[in-house]
């Protein structure tokens, strides 16, 4: 259980922060940037939830919880030392990825195939879900970049890759099952 008695600690005033294993790194490090963007994704999901209803509310709540798991995973380097840790680190699993895939497939069964790219927008929920999609894509890019220099859980990267696809399909569901999608018209304003 997490206990936060005091929100500010002053330990980051010099531009460093502690990772989950206690080591200190620059706040602009690739790892902190990656899990910070996962946190940013979570905040955008919170905004989307304000506009959601039905099953999407609970699905978005599960995603928010997963994103905290993902942040915990990314803030804990040294996966090879997991077995020796006093408290086993929280790691993303393929089960979480598979759940997203099943939800994506269920949404896809409802949607008609696209014949054009769509513009972010339509309903308020769809617009927020498109924002979730783009921020999660950035979190994925940053996590992939981190993986070029440090060890990153493969399931964490897979989750982020599926998540942006989930948001895309969910945005279409939010637009009257795709009927109210805003279609891109190439060269329309020339």
UniProtKB/TrEMBL annotation:
<dbReference type="GO" id="GO:0008817">
    <property type="term" value="F:corrinoid adenosyltransferase activity"/>
</dbReference>
<keyword id="KW-0169">Cobalamin biosynthesis</keyword>
<protein>
    <recommendedName>
        <fullName>Corrinoid adenosyltransferase</fullName>
        <ecNumber>2.5.1.17</ecNumber>
    </recommendedName>
</protein>
<dbReference type="Pfam" id="PF01923">
    <property type="entry name" value="Cob_adeno_trans"/>
</dbReference>
<dbReference type="InterPro" id="IPR036451">
    <property type="entry name" value="CblAdoTrfase-like_sf"/>
</dbReference>
<keyword id="KW-0963">Cytoplasm</keyword>
<keyword id="KW-0547">Nucleotide-binding</keyword>
<dbReference type="InterPro" id="IPR016030">
    <property type="entry name" value="CblAdoTrfase-like"/>
</dbReference>
<comment type="similarity">
    <text>Belongs to the Cob(I)alamin adenosyltransferase family.</text>
</comment>
<feature type="domain" description="Cobalamin adenosyltransferase-like">
    <location>
        <begin position="7"/>
        <end position="173"/>
    </location>
</feature>
<keyword id="KW-0808">Transferase</keyword>
<dbReference type="GO" id="GO:0005737">
    <property type="term" value="C:cytoplasm"/>
</dbReference>
<dbReference type="GO" id="GO:0005524">
    <property type="term" value="F:ATP binding"/>
</dbReference>
<comment type="pathway">
    <text>Cofactor biosynthesis; adenosylcobalamin biosynthesis; adenosylcobalamin from cob(II)yrinate a,c-diamide: step 2/7.</text>
</comment>
<dbReference type="GO" id="GO:0009236">
    <property type="term" value="P:cobalamin biosynthetic process"/>
</dbReference>
<dbReference type="InterPro" id="IPR029499">
    <property type="entry name" value="PduO-typ"/>
</dbReference>
<keyword id="KW-0067">ATP-binding</keyword>
């Amino acid at each position: 259980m997490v206990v936060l008695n005091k929100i500010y600690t002053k330990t980051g005033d010099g531009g460093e922060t502690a990772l989950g294993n206690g080591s200190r790194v620059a706040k602009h490090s690739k790892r902190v940037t990656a899990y910070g963007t996962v946190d940013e994704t979570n905040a955008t999901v919170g905004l989307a939830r304000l506009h959601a209803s039905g099953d999407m509310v609970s699905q978005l709540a599960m995603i928010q919880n997963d994103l905290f798991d993902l942040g915990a995973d990314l803030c804990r380097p040294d996966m090879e030392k997991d077995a020796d840790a006093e408290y086993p680190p929280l790691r993303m699993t393929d089960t979480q990825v598979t759940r997203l895939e099943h939800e994506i497939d269920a949404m896809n069964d409802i949607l008609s195939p696209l014949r054009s790219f769509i513009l972010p927008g339509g309903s308020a929920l769809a617009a927020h879900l498109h924002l979730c999609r783009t921020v999660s894509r950035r979190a994925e890019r940053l996590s992939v970049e981190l993986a070029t220099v440090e060890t990153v859980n493969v399931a964490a990267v897979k989750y982020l890759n599926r998540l942006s696809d989930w948001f895309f399909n969910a945005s279409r569901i939010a637009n009257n099952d795709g009927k109210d999608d805003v279609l891109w018209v190439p060269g329309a304003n020339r």
